[in-house]
TrEMBL record:
<dbReference type="InterPro" id="IPR029058">
    <property type="entry name" value="AB_hydrolase_fold"/>
</dbReference>
<feature type="region of interest" description="Disordered">
    <location>
        <begin position="254"/>
        <end position="311"/>
    </location>
</feature>
<dbReference type="Pfam" id="PF12146">
    <property type="entry name" value="Hydrolase_4"/>
</dbReference>
<dbReference type="InterPro" id="IPR022742">
    <property type="entry name" value="Hydrolase_4"/>
</dbReference>
<feature type="compositionally biased region" description="Low complexity">
    <location>
        <begin position="254"/>
        <end position="272"/>
    </location>
</feature>
<protein>
    <submittedName>
        <fullName>Carboxylesterase</fullName>
    </submittedName>
</protein>
<feature type="domain" description="Serine aminopeptidase S33">
    <location>
        <begin position="5"/>
        <end position="218"/>
    </location>
</feature>
Amino acid sequence: MGALHKVLARAGVETHGVTLPGHAGQPEDLLDVRVEDWMAVVTQRYRELCGQYEVVHVIGMCLGALLAVELCKRESHTRGALVVLSAPVFLDGWSTPWYRGLRYLLYHVPGVPRRIRVQEEDPYGVKSELVRAFIKAGFARGDGFHYQWVPLACVRQVDRLRGMVQQGLEHLDCPTLIMHAEEDELTSPRSARFLGSRIPGATVVMLQDSYHMICVDHERDRVMRDVLAFLGRDPDLVRVRKRPAAADAGVPAQAAAGWSGSSGPCGSFSASGRGGTGGKPSPMRRRWQSGLGEPSGIQMSNSRHGVGRFS
């Protein structure tokens, strides 16, 4: 989730994190993880924080966003706001191929979901070429910040969670901010529109110059400012950097280093057949990427003020 937790801390918001089952280890750790395991950890941490703080905000990115929405539904969350970043309610972004629906058949073939590996590739959910370069360098060094593949069995659990999230959204009764990129390669703007049309009073913000990983991409400053403003904090704590016309010139070196997390299923590393341009791949070069291999994030913020972050 980029530097969001640091910005929240500067704004006087305490942040709290939980490592989700299957994260911070090896991709094989995800083979036997179920939605129920993720929800149990998130729910336990949420209830602990509610016992410590009067106000608790829940913030989630990608898989974390789905968990955040489902948590707030199940717990009838009214103790603070809900912030939903790049929620993959539908896996229908421009990098997903026409045959993506065939995975539902493979789920029922004995042993296949455990054997199939869904690989992660360029552009890794990031439109910024410089940030992408840091991601590639991290892979080359063998850094453990991100799984390079996830088992199809994990994608199956994400599909189960997506189905849960789509039900009962009209019962949410907390201020909700939804942020999503128009060019999200993993999950199209349809996801944001779906949530915005069903969550009462939800605010929807669409970004024009990012891919899926909006917290570390070109518009990360806007994301942080909008989140601060939505939580009633000073958005001017984030200085907006002007990006020169030349692609990515002047983007700070630490842009890709702010992820809170541990490796695991979430996020947005997806496929592009064209390197170096930041554009979409040629249709002949597209291959489906799970978008589930990078650091996931749910944050909870409470006021006395704090945020719980699940990653």
